[in-house]
């Protein structure tokens, strides 16, 4: 490997990638000048910022929508479209005290990522860290240091407004709960969180049933999320649109617009279980009872389906999800319309708030949708239904989501872009490729920009090759960007690093010159949120930062 410093603004140039060193080793090899940040990180009073009127927002959005559609059509009309690649930073990028974790190692890691040709990085802005000390008491200092570091390296930044807890899902390498003062309110009123039929509470994310109720020390959850996003804008206003190019609004567990239907904590759910409906807190219960009564079906409002089974069952094991099950009855359709509709309303509220705050800043607003591909080839699509996506053999559940996102000019971020049908167990009736095709069609129809992520941490050429194939399209529904999961020491191992560098290069060239293997070189069974235990060794991975 040869390192060349061309100027004070230059970074590592990889003339060959064999024997690439880790970012920790870069610390002893390379020094560089500190560029003066072009954005000022200062807190500003919301009274100093004039909010765009609703009419002006609507007018601007219509113009941007027409321009975006024209841009999407032009950009994806041939296979040479450039797809920028971002890399997700570790979940524990910030310490529990709100400071940047291992800043020297992060600095070297960012230098390496810049040398690979990556466009930038993504980071979670954890609610449980930023507003930890009390309502409206925000600590953005660690993120300010990261923003400055990215700006110095010429990297762009995607920031996730993470209103969920970290911990309890695949790949969660640390534990970051909701803010202590929120947990205090939950302890007083457990119905603030999602609840399943057996009464099991899930502390990952607040129930959307209380979205509009002042249950958080006088504020509603939507008001709390709005204040948080507004605080971020005020703190980083001068960096929005230049360094910070995207704000992803968290809308559920793992930041995704969904119910926590398949929680992995304490072994509750295992792939490929169908999951369970999460509508048994008192607020969701009251909502369903009210709509049932309004429809003249009081008896339907007594609760969710009684025959929907348990987390780890298969569709045919249940009366609700089996081929000719209750899901397709009048009651089933009524319940699923309500259940999925509540999720759409939740997303609409959060994105409306995000749009009003970030409109005109130059930063894109995005929302994440989960890639729930197991049981996709069945009629009922059980795992999608319990998660809130009313997608069946007879109904397109992703077009309503895409249209809701398009309404607010939001980028649709979708996962499982790296997965192939042939990698999945036949018994689970999976089809990640079919699911991605459906979502791409929905995005195109709704005229919404589509970006992608990989669902599992994979570094093999087979996964990269699948993303390349998925990201390109001659019909105008390719990806506008891709975010790679995730940066850690494994990424900087020689073979993995070579794969990433080649992948980024190929994405920048429209998929041309891709010298990546066409199969999973690791020969493991890789599924969303699941790695087959009999084929893997238990190991502890040490992240770079």
What does this structure look like?
This protein has 545 residues and is α/β, with parallel strands linked by helices. It is built from 14 helices and twelve strands. It has an eight-stranded parallel beta barrel with strand order 1-2-3-6-7-8-9-10, surrounded by seven helices. Strands 4-5 form a two-stranded antiparallel ribbon. Strands 11-12 form a two-stranded antiparallel ribbon. Helix 13 links the parallel strand 9 and strand 10. Helix 7 packs parallel to helix 9 and helix 9 packs parallel to helix 11. The protein is globular, with a radius of gyration of 23 Å. The two termini are 23 Å apart. One of its GO terms (molecular function) is beta-amylase activity.
Short description:
It catalyses: Hydrolysis of (1->4)-alpha-D-glucosidic linkages in polysaccharides so as to remove successive maltose units from the non-reducing ends of the chains. By secondary structure, the protein is of the alpha/beta class. It is 33% helix and 10% strand.
Enumerate how many helices there are, as a single number: 14
Overall pLDDT: 85
Gyration radius from CA atoms, angstroms: 23 Å
Order of helices and strands: HHEHEHHEHEEHEHHEHHEHEHEHEE
Helix content: 25-40%
Structural class: alpha/beta
DSSP E strands, number: 12
Strand order of the largest sheet: 1-2-3-6-7-8-9-10
Could you give a short account of the major beta sheet? 8 strands, parallel, barrel
Principal-axis shape: globular
Strand content: 5-15%
| Distance separating the two termini | 23 Å
List unreliable stretches of 5+ residues.
1-21, 28-37, 43-53, 66-80, 519-545
């Amino acid at each position: 490997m040869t390192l060349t410093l061309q100027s004070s603004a230059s970074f590592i140039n990889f003339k060959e990638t064999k024997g690439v060193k880790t970012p920790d080793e870069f610390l002893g090899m390379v020094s560089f000048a500190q560029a003066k940040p072009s954005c000022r990180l200062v807190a500003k009073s919301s009274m100093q910022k004039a909010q765009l009127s609703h009419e002006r927002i609507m007018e601007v959005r219509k113009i941007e929508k027409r321009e975006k559609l024209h841009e999407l059509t032009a950009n994806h009309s041939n296979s040479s479209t450039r797809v920028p690649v971002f890399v997700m930073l570790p979940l524990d990028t910030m310490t529990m005290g709100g400071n940047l974790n291992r800043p020297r190692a992060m600095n070297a890691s960012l230098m390496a990522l810049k040398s690979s040709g990556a466009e930038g990085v993504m980071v979670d802005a954890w609610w449980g860290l930023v507003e930890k000390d009390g309502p409206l008491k925000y600590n953005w200092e660690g993120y300010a240091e990261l923003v400055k570091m990215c700006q110095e390296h010429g990297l762009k930044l995607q920031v996730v407004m993470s209103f969920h807890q970290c911990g309890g899902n695949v790949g969660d390498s640390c534990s970051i709960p909701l803010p202590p003062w929120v947990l205090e309110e939950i302890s007083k009123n457990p119905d603030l969180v999602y609840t399943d039929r057996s009464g099991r509470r899930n502390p990952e994310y607040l129930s959307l049933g209380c979205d509009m109720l002042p249950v958080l020390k006088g504020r509603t959850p939507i008001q709390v999320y709005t204040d948080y996003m507004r605080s971020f804008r005020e703190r980083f206003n001068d960096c929005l649109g230049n360094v910070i190019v995207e704000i992803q609004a968290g809308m559920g567990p793992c930041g995704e617009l969904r119910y926590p239907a398949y929680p992995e904590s304490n072994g509750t759910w295992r792939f490929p279980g169908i999951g369970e409906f999460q509508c048994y807190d008192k607020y969701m219960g009251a909502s369903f009872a009210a709509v049932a009564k309004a429809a003249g079906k009081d008896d339907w409002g007594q609760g969710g389906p009684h025959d929907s089974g348990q987390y780890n069952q298969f569709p045919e094991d249940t009366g609700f999800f089996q081929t000719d099950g209750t899901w397709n009855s009048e009651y089933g359709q009524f319940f699923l319309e309500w259940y999925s509709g509540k999720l759409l309303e939740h997303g609409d509220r959060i994105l409306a708030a995000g749009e009003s705050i970030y409109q005109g800043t130059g930063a894109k607003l995005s929302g994440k949708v989960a890639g729930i591909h197991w049981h996709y080839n069945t009629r009922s699509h059980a795992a999608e239904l319990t998660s809130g996506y009313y997608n069946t053999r007879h109904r397109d559940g992703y077009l309503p989501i895409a249209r809701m996102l398009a309404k607010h000019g939001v980028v649709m971020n979708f996962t499982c872009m790296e997965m192939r049908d042939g990698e999945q167990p036949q018994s689970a009736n999976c089809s990640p490729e079919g699911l991605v095709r459906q979502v791409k069609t929905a995005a195109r129809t709704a005229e919404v920009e589509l970006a992608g992520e990989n669902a599992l941490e994979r570094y093999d050429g087979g996964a990269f090759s699948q993303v390349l194939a998925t990201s390109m399209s001659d019909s105008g529904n390719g990806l506008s960007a891709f975010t790679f999961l995730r940066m850690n020491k494994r990424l900087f191992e020689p073979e993995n690093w070579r794969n990433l560098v080649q992948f980024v290069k190929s994405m920048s060239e429209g998929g041309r010159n891709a010298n990546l293997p066409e199969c999973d070189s690791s020969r493991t069974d890789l599924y969303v949120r699941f790695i087959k235990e009999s084929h893997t060794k238990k190991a502890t991975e040490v992240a770079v930062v």
